[in-house]
Amino acid sequence: MTLPQAATVVDELDRHGHMIVPDLLSREEVAAAKAELGTILESTPFGRNDFEGDHTRRVYALFAKTRLFDGPATHPLVLAVLDHFLGYYQLSAPTGIEIGPGETAQPLHPDDGVYPVPRPHREMVINVMLPLDDFTEANGATRIVPGSHRWGEERPGPETPTVAAEMAAGSALIYLGTLWHGGGANRTDRPRLGVVLHYAASWLRPQENHLLAVPREIVRDLPERMQELLGYNICPPFIGYVDGRHPRRALD
């Protein structure tokens, strides 16, 4: 299937706050990623609270543990959408997420809510959810509050309607950080696995400190664009310098 043009995705995000792009990953890429994350998850604990999920395992420091998402993180379509909304940006909280059987629905939230900036505001966060299993309403597909990216200080209540972002493995759900959403309840007898690539404007502090999470000996061997996305970059005019120099010099 031919991927949509970036302008089409941008238009859908402006109107609806989200868009599902089929077949961003090939079947081979999905299978390899699922197998490697499966190995990592064997030593990954379950969540510590309702937000992380008592029956959910989360792979943090993702880019210290696998190279299989370097390609998706720098996919030309993804970067073109990020260029439009954020201009200068970096990875913030990329995470592998396995929602297990019996997990309850995650509280609804916008992913830019961690930043104390009054709404409405310009977009500061963009997310790309990559399902490695088919996402269905029954197994915990991400729930979305339609139109909530346009809200000011409104908050969803118990009766607020949501839509399940059902999609096949290998698709990508691209959505704005202002969109209210949450992981769904898994009412099946099998876990569902996905990865969220969470990006933030580079003038913000990322949620995860990749400069500490990803060892320098790993970063030195990565392509320059991945190094930049992990924080070895400048937000013009000079936010992020090290001893007056570009942070990538610190890798020498």
From TrEMBL:
One of its GO terms (molecular function) is 2-oxoglutarate-dependent dioxygenase activity. InterPro entries: Phytyl_CoA_dOase-like. It comes from the Bacteria. PANTHER family: ECTOINE DIOXYGENASE, PHYTANOYL-COA DIOXYGENASE DOMAIN CONTAINING 1. This is Phytanoyl-CoA dioxygenase. It comes from Planotetraspora phitsanulokensis.
